[in-house]
Every structure is written in structure tokens, then in C-alpha cells.
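Researcher: We are triaging several targets before committing to wet-lab work. For this one, the compound of interest is flavin-adenine dinucleotide. I'm pasting the protein sequence and the ligand SMILES. What I need is the predicted three-dimensional arrangement of the protein with the ligand bound, expressed as C-alpha cells, so it can go straight into our comparison scripts without reformatting.
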Amino acid sequence: MEADYDVIILGAGAAGLSACVYTSRAMMKTLVLESLGSGGQLLITDEIENYPGFPEGVKGPLLAQDMETQALRFGGELEYAEVEALDDIDKPVKIVRTDDKVYTAKSIIIATGGAHNKLGAPGEDELAGRGVSYCAVCDGNFFRGQDVVVVGGGDSALDEGIYLSAIVKSVTFIHRRDELRATKLLQERAFAIDNIKFLWSHVVENLVGNELLEAVKVKNLKTEEVYEYPTAAAFIYVGFHPNSEYLQGVLEMDPLGHIATDLHMRTKVPGVYACGDIRTESTRQLGVAVGDGITAALSAYHDLL
Ligand SMILES: Cc1cc2nc3c(=O)[nH]c(=O)nc-3n(C[C@H](O)[C@H](O)[C@H](O)COP(=O)(O)OP(=O)(O)OC[C@H]3O[C@@H](n4cnc5c(N)ncnc54)[C@H](O)[C@@H]3O)c2cc1C
């Protein structure tokens, strides 16, 4: 059976789009399948200051748009569809299934990245989009001039909280420990901002509200005190999981769902590559995702020669 494509790239984040530049420039017939929006996590990142080539920093959505334009310049195709399953991945012609279509390819580059974890607290799902958010850059503007909370203490939480602090009246970080996990630079920035406060050693037990979020019920882990903390919005940043559910039983993964590769982004299955945040031991940085995507593309190219 003839394959439809030389390579199908799963996911149009930084890794997938970078791979597409290289495969399509190498004249490989390339399809990128994307379930949401080109750029992946870039779409929810306000300012990127550590990606080389942008001495003044760059806005994530702008970079995403440019990456997509560049990726499609050389003949690669992009379709919006969620990949639901892979079949025959150990065969020369591999099958990719979306909800309504079946595609075939000689190689597959997995670049489906990851997503933020939910808190799992009562009220979270009911109030999602009505005060509960996982994306400050998308939703921060709705809460201009109001008091909001950010749940979490890692890099993403601080990055988004600092962004929010310029828009809203106050940002209160709710963090289960009495120190942050975020990089020192981000911590110093957050500590220097007047309208950022911290509720240390607190957890969110409930998200409270009817039509809209009105408060978070918090527990002080040191005193056991439980009380309602009024807020217009809760931005939740409590971890991250790879988007690899559709690969269960198809490809070997670590316990958290990341895919192991060698240095050339090859998985254990010939013709199948993984790159970016979905990869085991990825440092989850943009430059790394770009480099991974390029490496995966070059490996796919060389393996088909
Ligand atoms: C708030 C925030 C701030 C950040 N700041 C920085 C920073 O300053 N510097 C830095 O270097 N890095 C930063 N990062 C990390 C960086 O953005 C990521 O490491 C990088 O974008 C990961 O790219 P990726 O292509 O591997 O994955 P993703 O960006 O997650 O892209 C994966 C794509 O695959 C799609 N997808 C998922 N499942 C499917 C499916 N089944 N079918 C089809 N498509 C699917 C998704 O919709 C997504 O578009 C930040 C991340 C966040 C969230």
C-alpha cells in the first residue's frame, strides 16, 4: 500500500511546526494535524524573553503565527483535527486516525506536547470559563481592575501571575508550601511587585460561586483554619501532563505518559519519533522543543533515504 504522506506530524506546537519546516524543505510530503490552534503553549504565553534571536523578547501568540507561516511556506499541509489513535505503527505504512478521517504515512513525528493539570476541587469544572481559568493571557483582561488568585508556585504560575499583576487590582498566590518552586529570577520579580501577595501553606478546597466565581475556600495547612477568600478569578497552575492518552498501549511511555527517545528523537519503533514537551526528560523549554522538532525531522528524512 502507498502511504499518503512521507511524514505526518502530530501537533502544531513549536516542536511540530519546526519539524514541518525541515521535512517540507527536504521535499518530504508532510501533513501536520492539530487539534486546537497552531502554536500550542505559545498561545498562552505572554512574553518570551529567553528564546534566542529576540533581544527585546517576543509575544507567544505572535511567534506562534510566524512559526506557522514559516512552516507552511514550503508545501507542508496543516489540518485541524484531533488524532485519536495510531495503528500499524511498526509497519512501513503507518495509520493515523482522527474522528472522521484515516491518513497513512511512512513516518510519524509525535509532537503533541502537554497541558495543565486541574486542581480537582469541587466547583472547578462548573465554574471553568466563569472565573476559573488556566490561561491568564487569554482571560486576564476579563478581570481588569479586580482581585484575583493564582494557584501554584512554579514557573508557569509566576509567569502568569506577573502578567496578571499589570492588569488586575491584586494577585494573591495560593501555594501549599512556604516557599516557591519557581526560578529565582521570577521569584525576585514577583516579590518586587506591590500588588502581588502570597497565602503560604494554603490549599484550595472549593471554588465557590453560582453563576460566577465569588471566592475560593482555602485551608491554612499550618493552623487548619478553613475560610473563604473572595476573588473574581482563580488562575490554576498546578502541574502539567503530556498529551499522550491516545498512545496508550501503542507506544512505550514512562509512568507520567512521556515518550522515551534516543538523542535523535527516535522512539523504539522504527519510523516513529517524539519531540518537545511530550518527550521523557524534556526541559519543557521553547528552544528545546524547536531543537527536538528539527532533530526529529532530520532523523525521519535520513531514515527514509
Ligand atoms: C505559560 C507558559 C509560559 C512559558 N514560558 C516559556 C518561556 O518563557 N521560555 C521557554 O523557553 N518556554 C516557555 N514555556 C514552555 C514552552 O512554551 C514549551 O516548552 C513549548 O511551547 C512546547 O512545545 P511543544 O510543541 O512540545 O508542545 P505544545 O506547545 O504543547 O504543542 C503541542 C500541540 O499539539 C496539539 N495536540 C495535542 N494533542 C493532540 C492530538 N491528539 N491531536 C492533534 N493535536 C494535538 C496541541 O493542541 C498543541 O498545539 C512556557 C509555557 C507556558 C505554558
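Researcher: Any quick observations?
Model: The longest helix spans residues 286-304.
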